[in-house]
Amino acid sequence: MKIIGLLLVPLTSMVVLWGVITAVTAGEGLELREYKTVWTNLRLPAYKLISEIQRERLISAQLLRNVADESAVAAQRTKTDAARDSFAQLSSKSKDRSEEIRTQVDAVYTQLDRLDSVRGEIDAGLSDRLHSVEAYNSVIDTLYSLHRKVALIDDIPIYEQSRVVIDMGYARELLSREQALGLGTVSAAERRLFTQLAGNRRFLIDQGLAELDPALRDPQVALISSPAYQRMRMMEDQIIAGGTPMGWLSTTEGLAKAFNEAQMRASTLLNERAEPVADEVLSRAFLLAGTALALVIVSIAFSLRMGTRLSKELGALRLAALEVSQERLPHVVAKLRKGEKVEMPELSVASTTVEIDDVGKAFSTVQQTAVEAAVGQAQLSEGVGHVFRNLARRSQTLLHRQRIQLADMQHRATDPEQLDDLFKLDHLTTRMRRHAEGLIILSGATPGRGWSRPVPLLDVARGAAAEVEDYQRVVVEPMSGQRLAGAVVGDVIHLIAELIENATVYSPAHTPVIVRGEGAARGFAFEVEDRGFGMEPEELAEYNERLASPPEFDLADSDRLGLFVVSRLAARHDIRVTLRGSPYGGTTAIVLIPEEHVAEPEPDAPAKAVQKEPAARPMRVVRSD
């Protein structure tokens, strides 16, 4: 999952980047296509409305000069209202394209609403020609501001030409304003405004002609070079000089119409240019998006394939490592402990990745090293066991001879003091024999002493008490007459002796150690109870765990030899040994001997099994020889 996560981060970034590039590129093409929609819904209706307002402004100026009748004015106003309604209807479809366009269209609506008040002032005679012309100028200026706002386009050549065409159209607007002001006698204020208009118009035309491309410039140059335009310029100079030229209206009317036609042709041509550019941009966007999408798909497929293969190889390596650690090595160690020969197959992980292959080889080397170490450890343990066994066997032989000699000396001794010393030596020899047997048990072998017939369990307890140093403190309570199978007598005596000695060592010298026994549903139970200081619950749990599952003998853990011997002997005969707290504050060891090792009492001696011997009296009832 981590590998897939690492792969998903760049792949997701790539997909997002592809989406952004596609959206931006396609957006440019769609925006170019919107140019035609904007032309249809905003710019073309605005041009038509401008033309009607220009005519209304001119005829209103004529009305104020008393050269036009009211019927003509009313007819023109009707045309203007129709153009205004058409503009309002079409502009509502595209005005929400952006916040700037919406604001500008609302400004146009506000100015158009003023037309009725301007007309009322003219009809009431409250407005002169200059004031009326400027009122109409404000409305038209707002429409030209709308042109400039909606002419924005991402294609720079089209935008530059569109801006120049709008300026040339505004030059035509300035000519229309001159036309309204130049009718008849011109006042000083009107002359100043006329002069400004003429200068601005000439500037816009001269500047625009230099920036237009040939297809758009040639019609404009033809108009500028015409005799009518030259004649109009001379008339402008006369008006600026204070004169009143003849034929001003007819001359400017023809030029205004020509300029308007040239303006519409130029705007239509630019609109036609935007559509193929938009198609080209869209085609490029689709091609780029398709190529990028193909690359993204290939990258995703390649990354997922590589990630999946790498994940499978790592999974196989993981399973192989787990198999080595959880199955192979424990199985090999178990076989080595049993003394069996082992063959360790080489760890093989199929991989095309050099690093994973190297890790697999490293695991194989580690496995081989671990096996070699386990073999060496097993050989070392076996060697130590041989040493323990040989030393113990030699000690057993010497101790056996020593006990025979001591027994002979005891039979010949008559002095009580000498007899007591010989008895002490015999007891010491018995303890030394138990320690020698402990070495044999540590080596994994079986001690040599055993019995051919069952032995009463009371005698087993007494024999165990006789093999500890402080046997005087051991109190063996009366028990039932049940007997213990001879094959396990030696090991049980040794086991209980270790528990009794442990109880005497870890309890005060003035306290007794009680040994009791009674029959159980599944055998016979011995209890060895001391009245010492006891153990903590955690320590009891640890010891019980070691007694239930005997660990491998550790040479460094020599302080717990007795515990190890007890656990080994118990496991050998399926005997259960449990430690628990004593009511007296010490520790009680419970030894449960399985019923298959317990025999019924002898029918001819039931009372003998329950006779109680003094605890301080040494008992040597059980002999290995």
UniProtKB/TrEMBL annotation:
Keywords per UniProt: Kinase, Phosphoprotein, Transferase
Q: Which SMART domains match?
A: HATPase_c
Q: What is its EC number?
A: 2.7.13.3
Show the Gene3D superfamilies listed in the entry: Histidine kinase-like ATPase, C-terminal domain
State if Phosphoprotein is listed as a keyword.
yes
Superkingdom in the source lineage: Bacteria
- What is the protein name stated in its UniProt record? histidine kinase
Q: Which organism is it from?
A: Nonomuraea composti
Q: What is the lineage of its organism?
A: Bacteria, Bacillati, Actinomycetota, Actinomycetes, Streptosporangiales
